[in-house]
């Protein structure tokens, strides 16, 4: 690994961090050590990096803001890639071309202030554009699938290609990328609509107030743990099963919102893992429903 890191440094791919605590890179604030995190400067450098990774058969993963992943406490002994430098944005009338590393929340607020509508759902979602496309992030009956017209990706052969909305298989919290994790999203084109700024800001403010009242935003978490089964919110099933406030170590099923697990007191990755599995087991036993996770376990294998 040392040789590979010096090769990456020699090729001036971008910032390289070694032996970083993973808790700085995910919203649960958990995990072991990342042996190497690289922040490629641009597309060309990213492709160079991927070539080094593939030639040397090294494990890797692109991460966004870490707001939907659950790292194990093991060290990540491959290369994590962050696309923070992919942060350009171009707005042309109602068309927005934005880099995968751009903050979704920031984009949503900026577009609303310009009177461009379509991203109001995203002002409470703390991910990157790349992570939001991968997850088809959404809320209030809207999601990325409604507004993304195309994305620029690096395919497994390291070519840059365009995938269009119809190729991206957007459905509830899922997209093409989840079935094809070897594709990397580097840019998205989003089509918005002109609308009244004041009305949009009022909607956003109202939702913010409601989120603050109903979500445990004062604690580290990764948002909803489970996808909503058809016809019933996962949170209601968990609440009805009497699991609100249930703890394992420093992890707790939030008392405010039962579909959130919070790191309320220095939780370990295992605390969160075990609590998720306990909730799944109890819901299965009590209702017969198999809850499906929205959050992704990373580095547990
Ligand atoms: C308080 C809170 C509230 C939330 N509310 C919502 C909500 O209302 N609705 C909602 O949908 N989600 C919500 N989330 C979850 C989360 O913010 C979203 O899923 C978000 O889209 C994840 O983006 P990320 O950049 O953090 O991705 P990460 O968690 O870093 O990564 C998620 C997955 O995307 C992949 N990925 C990341 N970037 C790329 C890329 N460029 N190319 C290919 N793959 C990539 C990663 O490999 C990983 O598999 C919430 C989270 C929190 C903490």
- How would you characterize the largest beta sheet? 5 strands, antiparallel
User: Would you tell me the overall average pLDDT?
Assistant: 97
From the helix content, strand content and strand pairing, which structural class follows?
A: alpha+beta
What is bound: which ligands?
flavin-adenine dinucleotide
Judging by the overall fold, what is the CATH architecture of the largest domain? Answer: 2-Layer Sandwich
- What distance separates the N and C termini? 20 Å
Outline of this structure?
The protein has 301 residues and is α+β, with helices and mostly antiparallel strands. Helices cover 30% and strands 26% of the residues. It has a five-stranded antiparallel sheet.
General description of the model:
There is one protein chain. This protein is an alpha+beta fold and 301 residues long. The chain has three domains: 2-82, Uridine Diphospho-n-acetylenolpyruvylglucosamine Reductase, domain 2 (2-Layer Sandwich); 89-199, Uridine Diphospho-n-acetylenolpyruvylglucosamine Reductase, domain 3 (2-Layer Sandwich); 217-298, UDP-N-acetylenolpyruvoylglucosamine reductase, C-terminal domain (Uridine Diphospho-n-acetylenolpyruvylglucosamine Reductase, domain 1, Alpha-Beta Complex), CATH 3.90.78. It has helices at residues 2-10, 43-55, 104-113, 129-135, 144-147, 176-179, 197-214, 234-240, 269-287; strands at 14-21, 33-40, 60-63, 69-71, 76-82, 89-92, 95-99, 116-117, 138-139, 142-143, 148-154, 160-164, 184-191, 193-194, 247-248, 251-253, 261-263, 296-298. A five-stranded antiparallel beta sheet has the order 6-7-13-11-12. The longest helix has 19 residues, at 269-287. It is globular and about 55 Å long. The mean pLDDT is 97. Bound molecules: flavin-adenine dinucleotide. Flavin-adenine dinucleotide is lined by residues 27, 61-69, 83, 100, 124-128, 130-132, 134-135, 137-139, 173, 177, 184-185, 217, 221-223, 296.
């Amino acid at each position: 690994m040392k040789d590979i890191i010096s090769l990456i440094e020699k090729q001036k791919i971008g910032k390289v961090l070694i032996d970083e605590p993973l808790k700085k890179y995910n919203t649960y604030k958990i995990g072991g050590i990342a042996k190497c995190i690289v922040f490629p400067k641009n597309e060309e450098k990213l492709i160079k990096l991927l070539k080094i990774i593939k030639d040397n058969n090294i494990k890797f993963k692109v991460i966004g803001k870490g707001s939907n992943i659950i790292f194990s406490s093991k060290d990540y002994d491959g290369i994590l890639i962050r696309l923070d430098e992919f942060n350009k944005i171009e707005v042309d009338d109602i068309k927005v071309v934005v880099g995968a590393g751009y903050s979704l929340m920031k984009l949503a607020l900026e577009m609303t202030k310009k009177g461009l509508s379509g991203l109001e759902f995203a002002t409470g979602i703390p991910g990157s554009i790349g992570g939001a496309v991968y997850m088809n992030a959404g809320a209030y009956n809207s999601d990325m699938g409604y507004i993304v017209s195309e994305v620029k990706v690096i395919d497994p052969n390291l070519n840059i290609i365009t995938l269009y909305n119809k190729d991206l298989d957007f459905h509830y919290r899922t997209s093409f990328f989840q079935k094809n994790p070897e594709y990397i999203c580097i840019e998205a084109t989003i089509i918005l609509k002109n609308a009244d700024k004041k009305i949009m800001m009022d909607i956003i403010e109202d939702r913010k107030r409601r989120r603050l009242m109903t979500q445990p935003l004062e604690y580290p978490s990764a948002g909803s743990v489970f996808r909503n089964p058809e016809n019933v919110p996962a949170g209601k099933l968990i609440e009805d099963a009497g699991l609100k406030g249930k703890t394992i170590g420093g992890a707790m099923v939030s008392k405010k919102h039962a579909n959130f697990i919070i790191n309320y007191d220095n939780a370990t990755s295992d605390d969160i893992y075990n609590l998720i599995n306990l909730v799944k087991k109890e819901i299965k036993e009590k209702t017969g429903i198999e809850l499906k996770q929205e959050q992704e376990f990373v580095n547990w294998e």
